[in-house]
Amino acid sequence: MILTVIYCCVYATAIVPAFVANGQEVDLPSSPTVGLKSDPRSELDQQLVPEIKQQNGQSRSIAVFPTSSEKAVGPENITQDDLDLRQTFDLTNEQRQAGQPSQWLSKIFSDAMWTFVPHSKSKSKCNLQARLYQQHLSNNTHWAIRMLDASLIVPSGIIAGAGQQFGHPDQCIHTRVPLPDFRTKYCLPSAQFSPYKDLYTDFYNKRTQDWPPYDMKKNVWDFLRPRDQLIRFTRHSFSWGLCIPESCSAEDIQTSLNDTLSRAFAKHQIHIQVNLTELQCYSVSEEKVRQMPLAGYLWTCVWYALIVLSFLGTVVHYQLKNEDNQHEEKRNSQNHTKEMEPSKLEQELDSENCKLPVGSFLLPFSFHRNAHNLVSKDNKRNVAQIDILDGVKGIAIVCTLGVHREMIGFSYAKNLEYFEWSLRSINFAWLTAGLNILDTFFFISGFLLAKTFIQNLNKHKTPNFFSLIVNRLFRIYPMYLMIIGFTIWVQPYIGEGPLWKSYADTEAQVCRKYWWQNLLFISTLYTEGNDICIPSSWYLSTDFQLYLISLALIFIVTKCPTWRKHILIFMFVVAHLVPSIVIYLEQEPSMFIHSVEGLRANARDRYFRKIYVPFYMRMGPHIYGVCAAYLTDYLVKRNFKFSTLQKTTICLITFGSTIGMFYAVAFLFLVPERIFQATIWEHVVFVIPYRLVYCSTLAIGILIEHCGGYGAVSDFFCHPIWVTLGRMSYHMYLWNFLTISWDVFLAQSLTHYNLYVFMLRTIGDIGMVSLISFFTHNLLEPPVAEFRKKFLPK
């Protein structure tokens, strides 16, 4: 106290007179610590805002900025940058005076969510636990802070497309609350926001088709306003993680959020609407209640039974193999067995061993035997020609897995801007323009069907159309039924996550309702009004429909051999003209132009249902395969051989044309400058060469393989890796959509994609699907094939 009095006396008698003598103003301190040093902020204000006289005699402040050279930038030496900065200040003040918000929605949202507490109009328990949560939150109680910390409070990256922000779901549902009957629940509500018309009128103009880059000087609402889905995904909606008491229902949470956020956003002239369903909420107790039904346990028991039978079959196979060694030594002593091929000898020994009832039943289940047959390669000429088809299918299924990863994984990327850029980039044309890769399977399907008929006719055997259909059904149904059963009875109960219930429960509900359409192969005949059980199953329905059409075509040309060439040419032309007619009538593009919204909609997308999957749009490759089989048989019967120069020239032309077609698609229809400018007639004309060029490459490749071969190129396509993948392609195709969906919808955070991450995930998809398919194929297919041989007509 004494020091304070002494300081004030010295300050008043010595320091103040000195400042006054120099003409300076002095602020008297109110305490010993204030006034010893002048306030830097007040000094800066005095330097920045001196007063100047206006013409009307009034004074106003103008900015004067100190520089590094200790020179002031004032009215006499003001620069253009200073004027721009001043205009920005004036614009901000005008916006505030006009009622426009000075806060971005993240700040508005976080301020509202910091104090958010759910309430219910009908559940007192929800209201009680909400008050307890609020009370313990104010006391910084551990469990309450964990709930708050698990929720997303401040959204970020909305402009970049990060519309799904999960917070920390595991932390939420595993928070143990030391209160009676108080459990936590995690929800993922979604909200759509838009400005009032008075705030930004242009937001409500018609959907625009302007492409990035966008003007950074404009209002942010100009960027957020809706644009065509082919340009980018919506930016005026987002989802966020929320941890709340389990006693509050999804309807209670939705009502509470709408009340809280609507009031907060209305102050800033922004409309917001929150949506939430029970499919977007989950908790630990709910997961315990969600028990797998009896049918799900029966499904797993079937696989367990197959595993047991496989083990027993392998044991029997090894036992019989030891006994066969003695027979083999005895047979090797005979002259005719010395020249016998190993594969033929093994078949003969198997036939002898299968005379025993136990061996006859268990041997087809032997995992060792089935795996060996799956990866083995036969050196016979006709089998080698089938091997190259399996090799082509193996390469095609690998490419298909990459396209599926792009379609499902990329569309849920954290950095949607990168994905949207890649969809319109020439660098990714090999991915975005390569959707006709599935034409490979349609072409080979038609080729093998016709080749089977031709081989039987060459042997003077009359093919049985009914037996062909029955055998094909028994090849498709076993694994198909297992996948449908898995989707309905098993998949919803094997995982948890913010997106899992929305995905798994929805898929299960669709399959419960429409499974019969899948089994009748008519799901793609409904172009609207229903969903498809297992989106990837569209291929099976379309392929079976084309199988029946090709059977009818082959039956006609078999009965009318003199008109064969004319009928095949007519069907070839019709198959390639029908897509053009449909595209003109529907006014749709000639290929599936990807967008985030369309890929997320998947089988529900309009273009997908009306243009992409119908059999009449996919008829060209299948009929082309049938025609290629007849042409191949014609050349083989005349012992036609391609020369080395012919093969080299044809390969370079066809391969170059296929690659050129991919980039032609990108330049003509996928780059921003062309998506909306391309006319319908361009699409009508282009759809014919779009499929014709690729199928011609396949046809010429098969012709050369049957008429001389490719040499080293044939060895590459017949490599055991490709052949094995091709033989498993059916199982890989069915499992792939499921495994990628598990990766996306079981995740508790979105993936940030780049080319490296994309390739890493694709390689992981190939490895995982190959491993699963290797086991399911060896467990299921050989026993079913043995059943077909014994009980079905040949």
From TrEMBL:
Keywords: Membrane, Signal, Transmembrane, Transmembrane helix
Pfam assignment, any one: NRF
Keyword Transmembrane: yes
Domain of life: Eukaryota
Domain Nose resistant-to-fluoxetine protein N-terminal: 123-274
GO MF entry, a single one: acyltransferase activity, transferring groups other than amino-acyl groups
Signal peptide: 1-23
Region (Disordered): 323-344
Identification of the protein by name: Nose resistant to fluoxetine protein 6
InterPro entries for the chain: Acyl_transf_3_dom, Nose-resist-to-fluoxetine_N, O2_lipid_transport_reg
Transmembrane segment boundaries: 297-320, 428-454, 474-494, 544-560, 567-585, 648-671, 683-704, 755-780
